[in-house]
Amino acid sequence: MAKRGAFSSLLSCLIVLLFLTPVLAVTNDHQEKQVYIVYMGSLPSRADYSPVSNHISILQEITGESSIEGRLVRSYKRSFNGFAARLTESERQLVANMEGVVSVFPSKKLKLQTTASWDFMGLKEGNKTNRNLSVESDTIIGVFDGGIWPESESFSDKGFGPPPKKWKGICAGGNNFTCNNKLIGARHYGPGNATDHSGHGTHTASIAAGNAVAKTSFFGLGYGTVRGAVPASRIAAYKVCAGECKDEYILSAFDDAIADGVDIITISIGDIDVYPFETDPIVIGAFHAMSKGILTVNAAGNTGPYTASITSLAPWMLTVAASTTNRAFVNKVVLGDGKTLVGNSVNNFDLKGEKLPLVYGKSAASSASLVKCAEDCTPNCLDASLVKGKILVCNRSLPYVAYTKGAVAGIFKDGADWAQIEGIPVSGLQENDFESLLSYIKSTNTPKAAVLKSDTVFNPQAPRILSFSSRGPNTIATDILKPDVTAPGQEILAANSLKALPFYDNTHVKYTIESGTSMSCPHVAGVAAYVKTFHPKWSPSMIKSAIMTTAWSLNASESGYASTEFAYGAGHVDPIAATNPGLVYDSTKADYIAFLCGMNYNATTIKLISGEAVTCAGKNLPRNLNYPSMSAKLSRTYGSFSITFSRTVTNVGTPNSTYKSKVVLNHGSKLNVKVSPSVLSMKSLNEKQSFTVTVSGSDLGSKLPSSANLIWSDGTHNVRSPIVVYAGIFPSLSP
Ligand SMILES: *[C@@H]1O[C@H](CO)[C@@H](O)[C@H](O)[C@H]1NC(C)=O
Ligand SMILES: *[C@@H]1O[C@H](CO)[C@@H](O)[C@H](O)[C@H]1NC(C)=O
Ligand SMILES: *[C@@H]1O[C@H](CO)[C@@H](O)[C@H](O)[C@H]1NC(C)=O
Ligand SMILES: *[C@@H]1O[C@H](CO)[C@@H](O)[C@H](O)[C@H]1NC(C)=O
Ligand SMILES: *[C@@H]1O[C@H](CO)[C@@H](O)[C@H](O)[C@H]1NC(C)=O
Ligand SMILES: *[C@@H]1O[C@H](CO)[C@@H](O)[C@H](O)[C@H]1NC(C)=O
Ligand SMILES: *[C@@H]1O[C@H](CO)[C@@H](O)[C@H](O)[C@H]1NC(C)=O
Ligand SMILES: *[C@@H]1O[C@H](CO)[C@@H](O)[C@H](O)[C@H]1NC(C)=O
């Protein structure tokens, strides 16, 4: 009966639409079609509802064609309702007005954000203290990326039993793609198969959940054991990027992964533009995942250090910035006069210390008028015959140009605070060293240098936020601090796909070194999985809270690339501390909906995100979402202010415990912070207690955001939340 009800409502649309379709059918041929996602919210709970036939009939109606061949791109039917289809603009308008359709938005293309790190974070290899391998082996991490290389030793299933009983996924990686008891599932959404051709998906999966593989290195660099946070856990790979990462693929992957039974989703994908929550597939997918108890961990993005560059903004996701570890790669340049300069590339090529002739681009200009652009090594400004066999020196980092012009090596001006692999021997010098190099070249008729193989160095200044890591503040939910935490994202050695080519020849490597928030994100997904093995019943926000409130506290820095809470959120993840946070800030789906109501989104927009009809009876100020950090954007910089945050903590530590509050002001801020009550006495586990934090002060016109830490301490646990008050978006923090 219910089925008829559903169809009769469609039928009424049909009658209206039939008048329009012939017109559309004519214009169809002339209008360009684009893939749109038609999102229909939660799945009806009726057993007799068939999403696919509903999707087909909707398409038939709006196109006026009985054959919808080539139109329906995919149906979302397992965890929420909707479909992706090729539509013209007028068809898009028609479908948007149909009953049951929540929203229609174009399928955009997102970008992939391109291990000693675990030791750095204190998660030591072989430390089985308190670890329960059978629980770890029941943990499944869903990796949304560019596929995976199943043959990697990092995904070997030696010693693994059959997949956990809860697993409902499949191995549908395409032709000849094989899974095993470690890589228990694979799906691909674009053309081809789930094989990873870029190496990115293999790298991220092995960081989160790869086996421990000993004696690994990149040509001797970074030698040691590569491993994921929870090496006993299983991996399900969802290939959502095939050349491009399309929204429709990403939504499909959420639809599948939720139903397949993954525990944590890691998604090192994002966009450089901010999209409204209601049209962002990661935001929508992560909301559904959260409502099914699955935490989504997302990369902050690589668009830093610019202020407000971050695009991962929803509070139900865990957003991860990238920072350094105590291991860095440097490579030295020894000049003909014996002076040594230190550059920042990962150079595996061993030229045996041989000193070779140097040529600065301007001395290899293809004509006198092209001297300036030859300093930059713009390809058509260089005369290859003057470059061949020499070390090319350029103002810009252009290894490929050096290679194509026949140079044996390159030395470039490169201000980056991280190093990468290139196809030829390369060193990147900071400005001062580059100028020393140029003076040396000027000083002699036969300038020479040796570009040495990279060395591993200890970096005592770690962790520091990397320049490329995207910065807040949050431009949509301005009272939610983003990013949430930081984790290692610099020069991470992890598994590679043998289809990927880091070089210009046919050299393939099983393990490679990459940097990015793409690498920090799976670190935190691994930590979330690790926490979940200790607390299988915890909600996504409890896990997130544990990771945030136990993070290492970081200090703001204004030197180099500015770094404040808008760069590191609550701080640097601490995997072991996160398993025992003492108190957590929990939020339910209803809380997130009340938050959206508080953002003054109307019921229509909220339905676009949550897939549910809401009334907004329970409205909450965004800053009062029970979030583990506290942030508020004030409307003006000058004058006095007073704002209050409400929070509720749940006791997950010691049954009978007393927590005292402590407030520490950060980087010279002059805030007045009052916590009420200032002491919380817990009598039992899972007991909840509420408190308020009132922050007052005046004149926020400082270069840094005014911030403090609230720490609840029972003597054993220190439950720390950053408090950040700001006005405007700190343009002065841009470099
Ligand atoms: C091992 O892990 C436990 C917690 O799981 C921690 O307390 C201990 O310090 C660790 N030991 C080493 C040597 O890392
Ligand atoms: C591991 O956890 C499972 C499930 O909670 C439990 O049955 C088992 O006894 C635990 N094993 C160890 C070694 O603690
Ligand atoms: C699958 O593998 C078999 C055996 O190696 C090969 O003959 C076949 O062409 C492969 N199929 C595809 C689609 O690559
Ligand atoms: C997997 O797909 C790629 C194209 O994406 C293709 O080059 C490759 O041959 C395919 N492999 C198999 C085994 O089908
Ligand atoms: C190249 O770099 C040098 C040294 O930093 C500088 O003096 C020169 O102006 C730069 N050339 C161009 C074209 O920017
Ligand atoms: C942050 O600054 C404080 C005070 O200057 C200092 O005591 C602390 O060690 C610093 N923390 C870090 C992580 O550098
Ligand atoms: C809901 O909000 C959206 C976005 O602001 C707006 O376009 C729409 O008209 C609103 N709908 C209603 C029913 O108010
Ligand atoms: C709880 O702790 C307080 C203070 O340490 C102590 O006086 C009280 O007896 C404890 N209650 C229980 C039930 O353990």
Walk me through the structure.
The protein is α/β, with parallel strands linked by helices and 735 residues long. It contains 19 helices and 37 strands. Strands 7-8-11-6-14-16-17-26 form an 8-stranded parallel sheet, with helices on both faces. Helix 7 (200-209) runs parallel beside helix 14 (517-534). The longest helix has 18 residues, at 517-534. Residues 1-30 and 731-735 have low confidence and may be disordered. Residues 624-725 form the Subtilisin-like protease fibronectin type-III domain. Keywords: Glycoprotein, Hydrolase, Protease, Serine protease, Signal. Residues 1-25 form the signal peptide.
SSE arrangement:
Elements: H1 2-18, H2 21-28, E1 34-39, H3 51-63, E2 72-76, E3 82-87, H4 89-96, E4 103-106, E5 109-112, H5 116-120, H6 133-137, E6 140-145, E7 171-172, E8 183-188, H7 200-209, E9 213-218, E10 221-226, E11 234-239, E12 241-242, E13 244-246, H8 247-260, E14 264-267, E15 269-270, H9 281-291, E16 295-299, E17 317-323, E18 327-335, E19 340-343, E20 356-360, H10 371-375, H11 384-387, E21 391-394, H12 399-404, E22 409-413, E23 426-429, H13 431-443, E24 448-451, E25 455-458, E26 485-488, E27 492-495, E28 511-514, H14 517-534, H15 540-549, H16 565-568, H17 575-578, E29 583-584, H18 589-598, H19 603-610, E30 630-634, E31 640-651, E32 657-665, E33 672-676, E34 679-682, E35 688-698, E36 706-713, E37 718-727
Parallel strand pairs: 6-11, 6-14, 7-8, 8-11, 14-16, 16-17, 17-26, 20-21, 21-22, 22-23, 30-37
Antiparallel strand pairs: 1-3, 1-4, 2-3, 5-13, 5-15, 9-10, 12-13, 18-19, 18-24, 18-25, 20-24, 27-28, 29-31, 31-35, 32-34, 32-36, 33-35, 36-37
The structure holds 2-acetamido-2-deoxy-beta-D-glucopyranose (8 copies).
